């Protein structure tokens, strides 16, 4: 038995999502067609609106609905302090901490030559221009500690040093309230290397 063409089309469309294979896609399509017509219509509307209305902020590359995102547009944020992160989710994490008043640069990935992700794909040519422009005082590196994250951090370090811009890196280490026995060795070693004087 074959599906009706529109059902097939729907199933196929779901397979574009990360981690969704043909069987999961089929389950999703059936669920919406059987019991979720209204949610399905809302999903379609949300997809349409986002695909047409979301762009990348021209300063920081985060998702935005205008040329600049609210953070880059805010006069309260220090434009001379830029935190480099890999994804928009990282920006949210920093914002939730409420501690950071600088701006961001969102790479939307990390260097991964085998996957065809080079400096241009991460907007590093744009970052280099901004660094050379002289408005940035300090770059804070907050990329991941994977091999790709490290390679990305070192590439950006070179760009910043060429431009004479100070670079710092967030301390990596032991989570608050975490038990040391659950922390992996690499994290613990990094936390040890990044230790600071203990003061009252
Ligand atoms: Zn922005």
Automatic annotation (TrEMBL):
Transmembrane stretches, start-end: none
Toprim domain span: 80-175
Keyword list, A-Z: DNA damage, DNA recombination, DNA repair, Metal-binding, Zinc, Zinc-finger
Entry keyword annotation includes Metal-binding: yes
Keyword DNA repair: yes
PROSITE patterns: RECR, TOPRIM
Chain ranges of zinc fingers (C4-type): 57-72
GO MF term list: DNA binding; zinc ion binding
GO biological process terms held by the UniProt record: DNA recombination; DNA repair
Pfam families: RecR_C, RecR_HhH, RecR_ZnF, Toprim_4
InterPro entries: DNA_Rcmb_RecR, Rcmb_RecR, Rcmb_RecR_Znf, TOPRIM_dom, TOPRIM_RecR
Function: May play a role in DNA repair. It seems to be involved in an RecBC-independent recombinational process of DNA repair. It may act with RecF and RecO.
Record family assignment: Belongs to the RecR family.
Name of the protein described by the UniProt record: Recombination protein RecR
Species in which this protein is naturally found: Alcanivorax nanhaiticus
Gene field: recR
């Amino acid at each position: 038995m074959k599906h009706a063409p529109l059902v097939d089309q729907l199933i196929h469309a779901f397979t574009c999502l990360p981690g969704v294979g043909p069987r999961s896609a089929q389950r999703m399509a059936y669920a919406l067609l059987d019991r979720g017509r209204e949610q399905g219509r809302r999903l379609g509307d949300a997809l349409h609106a986002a695909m047409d209305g979301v762009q990348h902020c021209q300063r920081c590359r985060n998702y935005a609905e205008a040329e600049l995102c609210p953070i880059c547009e805010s006069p309260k944020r220090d434009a001379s302090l830029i935190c480099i992160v890999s994804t928009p989710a990282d920006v949210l994490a920093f914002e939730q901490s409420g501690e950071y008043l600088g701006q961001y640069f969102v790479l939307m990935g990390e260097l991964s030559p085998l996957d065809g992700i080079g400096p241009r794909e991460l907007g590093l040519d744009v970052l280099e221009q901004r660094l050379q422009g002289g408005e940035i005082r300090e770059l804070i590196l907050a990329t991941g500690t994977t091999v790709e994250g490290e390679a990305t951090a070192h590439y950006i370090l070179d760009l910043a040093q060429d431009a004479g811009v100070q670079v710092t890196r967030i301390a990596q280490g032991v989570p608050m309230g975490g038990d040391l026995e659950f922390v992996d060795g690499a994290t613990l070693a990094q936390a040890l290397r990044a230790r600071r004087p203990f003061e009252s």
